[in-house]
Design brief:
The structure holds two protein chains of two kinds. By secondary structure, chain A is α/β, with parallel strands linked by helices. Chain A is 35% helix and 11% strand. Classes of the chains: A alpha/beta, B mainly alpha.
């Protein structure tokens, strides 16, 4: 980062939030590994078909032990493509047996991979909440970001999910979509772009969904490499820093979420996980040594990539975190 | 100075406040009010700004309002159509002056 950029901790301090601390534990997010059937341009995990890191049964048993000992309401499964892990289905079933909400971050095309033929049925039987990546309602931006042919397959997958009730009103089967910008700019107002998706996907493809979450691109991993290669890194960081929203900083997801890596190590979020910044400041560092109180009030590790979650209306795994009208308004452009 | 137009200069716009801060403040307040949602949405205003930026051929404004249009959820197709609107008006504005030429021709009996 350019030396004259304000460090993230300085921005937090100006908002009275330094040091940033957790204020509970609502979501246990587990990264099932980096194996994926896609290799998307903006993937902060740098997942792909060639990756072999995957969470094992023993580590997942530690996660279940924690869930049994606590009332953490939501389990959020991510990857890579978590469905490619052989322990995925038994773990989902066990979490649902414990009465927890299970979110799966699904890339949609996984439905058509060999061995995944019954995935839609599995999701239906267990009432899993599907959070599906679809960066735009048009083919061009989706295929550029996620690979050729991905849009068409994604639409087909959404149709299959709609057919069994996902995203349909009154079924209780939730299907949320995730929008992320096609390049180095901030997401639009979540409500406005959700209305566009709803109108366009219904008119063009007859598709319905429950919610749409806008998520900003983090300046890390494959996206950072892309920014640097195109000479856009400094400009993007400047955009994030100038758009710092103190209300979003107060509401960042790491304050109520814990991220478990494929190897059982604990992180404040999936982004810190990818950067290798583990839980610190006296908090447990591995799922096997879990201490709920120490985790729920821990000091969070922050760095300059955190500007990605506090820019504009903010960004989290559940979308925008501050009302759009609280976005800092840039001076005359 | 390597060029009259440096991309980094866009972020230095506020330096224009120097020597006339009250005028800058008035401009900035008015500018903010213009782009606030009204009977036109923020996206519509960003697309109008993008089109005008092309008509007045301001590289700073094109940079700023291409990004602003994207951040208001506009698609590349909508942005391209907006630029065509600007181009059509510029082209039309040139061509409609042909009527003046016709007037001159008429004066000379042609």
């Amino acid at each position: 980062m350019k030396p004259d950029f304000k460090p993230f901790r300085a921005a937090l301090a100006e908002s009275g939030l330094d040091p940033l601390t957790a204020n509970g534990l609502e979501v246990l997010q587990i990264n099932f590994g980096r194996l994926c059937n896609q290799a998307c341009l903006h993937c902060h995990v740098e997942a792909g078909p060639g990756r072999r890191e995957m969470i094992d049964a023993e580590t997942l048993e530690h996660c279940l032990r924690l869930l049994r000992a606590t009332t953490i309401p939501t389990v959020d499964l991510t990857g890579g493509a978590p469905e490619m892990n052989p322990n995925f289905r038994s773990f989902v079933a066990a979490c649902r047996d414990l009465g927890r909400t299970v979110l799966v971050r699904c890339n949609l095309t996984i439905l058509f991979e060999p061995g995944q033929e019954d995935l839609v049925g599995f999701y239906t039987r267990h009432g899993v909440e599907i959070v599906a990546s679809l960066p735009y309602y048009q083919e061009g931006p989706v295929d550029t970001q996620r690979g050729r042919g991905v849009f068409e397959k994604s639409i087909e997958a959404l149709r299959l999910l709609n057919d069994v009730g996902f995203g349909q009103v009154g079924t209780g089967l939730r299907l949320s979509l995730v929008y992320n910008p096609a390049g180095a700019f901030l997401p639009p107002d979540q409500g406005a772009i959700e209305a566009d998706f709803r109108r366009e996907l219904a008119a063009r493809h007859g598709i319905v969904f429950t919610d749409l979450y806008t998520i900003a691109n983090m300046p890390i991993g494959r996206f950072r490499t892309h920014l640097e290669r195109t000479g856009a890194y400094d400009g993007y960081m400047e955009r994030l820093i100038r758009s710092y929203n103190p209300l979003a900083a107060e509401r960042v997801m790491c304050r109520s979420l814990l991220s478990v890596g494929w190897d059982g190590k604990l992180y404040d979020c999936d982004f810190n996980q990818m950067l290798g910044i583990g839980c610190n400041h006296g908090a447990p560092t591995h799922i096997s040594q879990f201490d709920v109180e120490a985790i729920a009030g821990r000091r969070i590790c922050v760095d300059d990539h955190c500007y990605g979650c506090t820019a504009g209306a903010g960004s989290s795994c559940g979308g925008a975190i501050a009302p759009d009208e609280t976005r800092p308004k840039p001076a005359a452009q | 100075m390597d060029s009259y137009y440096e991309p980094g200069d866009l972020n230095r716009f506020a330096e224009v406040a120097k020597d006339a801060p009250e005028l800058w403040e008035k401009f900035n307040d008015w500018y903010g009010a213009v782009f606030a949602p009204g009977t036109l949405s923020e996206r519509e205003k960003a697309l109008i700004a993008l089109a005008v930026a092309h008509a007045v051929q301001c590289p700073y404004c094109i940079d700023a309002y291409a990004q602003a249009s994207l951040e208001k959820g506009a698609s590349a197709e909508q942005m391209t159509e907006a630029v065509h609107v600007a181009a059509a008006i510029r082209g039309g504005a040139t061509l409609v002056h042909g009527v003046q030429m016709r007037n001159v021709l008429k004066k000379f009996g042609l």
